[in-house]
Write a structure and sequence with these properties.
By secondary structure, the protein is α/β, with parallel strands linked by helices. 38% of the residues lie in helices and 20% in strands. The chain binds NADP nicotinamide-adenine-dinucleotide phosphate (NAP).
Length: 488
């Protein structure tokens, strides 16, 4: 057992629990424990809510420009520590350093910066009513809880805390127990930047801690990222205290490649949308619909590029672009989908063997990029979110039916279309039931662009100005300017 043991972060400092309970965190690329983390017990959780309520009073009373400057200072620290933070994410998640260094911290910092810049512009409205008038104020909600998934731990913590804090709320954040360190580092950075104590607390542990937050009457909002099934439980429990919710959930998104598409670009999108972060990305385009006229050419290019360009191995090696899955249990789950695809008649084109790995990575949870072709809509791998590097290629030959098939899913997170026919591109995208859509692109998610799901993939939005509405509430103030008329 590791001697390194981290604690929860409450009221601007680390706080020890009273039970002594800890859990162990494993590096997915080696299979070995890297540190222990203290579980938030009832003492820690109660202190977190108390200090978040106190922090909210201080923070919400500050001028929005003051809050903005403090958050901008945190952005500077995040960028200065990009390498250190990226390495933490690599060891916790198993993803390649070349990704974490370029995307994870940077995209988190970008979102905090965006909201720090936008929040001082939040304003109410005013309307004359003859002699009287009314005005509105956009006020913060209070204490918000953030519950995160394990695929982008630090980025998710930034995407939730950025808008929450910029709008004047405080936040208690619970990362996934598989990737708990990034959020603690963010909490330290916020404190160093001048965020008052209690405004961002981090509590650690598994589902029980999440349930505790979800049911607590002293918390006004839950912003959740995770699976659809968990999201439904969280929302049901949050309803008992009528909390506001934002739900960023799973998907099984279509990527439609028409016969006139630039095939090299389309292959890039299919690879990004299936193999980035070893396929553990919520918006992945895992149902790749390829027009039958270009299917053979597409598959040839795809397999050639997988063989030539994917480098699986030690995620800390800057040359590696394909890392390890999050856990042994998750690898077993992904393998079971691969097995079901084989038995249901899909043809496996690659991924049967794992390349040689360095000695220290041989206990890691690696699984090679896997492509199935001749998939049909009823197959399990086509219907369910796998959250691993498994691409299902499906054929189509007409626009109307491919739209109907793409929409034939309870999910609605993302969708992509590749075509050089500009009218078709928009016509098709407008008919796809998904919240995040790309034309001749895939996966980009700038801070300015709202993201979130249709149907079972979510409620509310993250990023973009749209999100300010999800972290504020409107107060209407009616002003009587003369005698009050009354029949009494
Ligand atoms: P998960 O199993 O649903 O867990 C998400 C978080 O909820 C974790 O922190 C988990 O804690 C916690 N949790 C589990 N049960 C809970 C309960 N009953 N009440 C409150 N909290 C509870 O999801 P995951 O496996 O971590 O992440 C993968 C999923 O996230 C995929 O479905 C993916 O598509 C989705 N995702 C969506 C987005 C998006 O923006 N739409 C982004 C990233 C990921 P523990 O893990 O510690 O048990």
């Amino acid at each position: 057992m590791s001697h390194l043991c981290y604690k929860n972060y409450v009221n601007g400092r680390f706080m020890a629990n009273t039970t002594g309970e800890t859990f162990s965190v494993v590096n997915p690329a080696t299979g070995k424990e890297i540190y222990q983390m203290e579980t938030a017990d009832n003492t820690v959780l109660a202190a977190a809510v108390k200090s978040a309520r106190q922090g909210f009073k201080v923070w919400s009373a500050m001028d929005a420009v003051q809050r903005s400057r403090i958050l901008m200072a945190a952005v500077v620290l995040l960028r200065e520590r990009n390498h250190e933070l990226a390495c933490i994410e690599v060891r916790d998640t198993g993803k390649p350093l070349q990704e974490a260094a370029a995307v994870d911290v940077v995209s988190g910092a970008d979102v905090i910066e965006f909201f720090a810049g936008a929040a001082p512009g939040i304003e109410g409205s005013q309307q004359d009513l003859g002699r009287d008038f009314y005005y509105t104020r956009r006020e913060p909600l209070g204490v918000c809880a953030g519950i995160g998934a394990w695929n982008y731990p630090l980025q998710i913590a930034c995407w939730k805390s950025g808008p929450a804090l910029a709008c004047g709320n405080s936040m208690i954040f619970k990362p996934s127990e598989e990737t708990p360190l990034g959020a603690l580092k963010l909490a330290q950075i916020f404190t160093e930047a001048g965020v008052p104590d209690g405004v961002f607390n981090v509590v650690q542990g598994a589902a029980r801690v999440g349930q505790w937050l979800t049911g607590h009457p002293g918390i006004e909002k839950i912003s959740f990222t995770g699976e659809v099934g968990t999201g439904k439980k969280v929302m049901a429990r949050a309803a008992s205290t009528l909390k506001d919710v934002t739900m960023e959930l799973g998907g099984k998104s279509p990527l439609i490649i028409f016969e006139d598409a630039d095939l090299d670009q389309a292959v890039s999108a299919a690879m990004l949308g299936n193999f980035y972060t070893q396929g553990e990305v919520c918006t992945n385009g895992t149902r790749v619909f390829v027009h039958e006229q270009v299917k053979i050419a597409f598959l040839e290019k795809l397999l050639g590029r997988i063989q030539a360009n994917i480098k699986m191995g030690d995620p800390m090696d800057p040359e590696t672009n394909f890392g390890a899955l999050i856990s042994e249990a998750h690898k077993v789950k992904v393998l079971s989908y691969i097995e079901s695809a084989r038995t249901e008649g899909a043809i496996q084109l690659c991924g049967q063997t794992c390349p040689d790995l360095p000695l220290e990575n041989q206990g890691g949870f690696f699984l090679p990029p896997t492509v199935f072709t001749d998939c049909t809509d009823g197959m399990t791998l086509v219907k369910e979110e796998i959250f691993g590097p498994v691409m299902a290629v499906l054929d189509f030959n007409d626009e109307v039916s491919v739209i109907q098939r793409a929409n034939n899913t309870p999910f609605g997170l993302a969708a992509g279309v590749f075509t050089n026919d500009i009218q078709r591109a928009h016509r098709v995208i407008h008919q796809l039931a998904a919240g995040i859509c790309w034309i001749n692109a895939y996966g980009n998610s700038p801070a300015q662009m709202p993201v979130g799901g249709y149907k079972n993939s979510g409620i509310g939005r993250e990023n973009g100005l749209e999100t300010l509405r999800h972290y504020t509430q409107v107060k209407s103030v009616y002003m009587g300017m003369g005698p009050l008329e009354s029949p009494f």
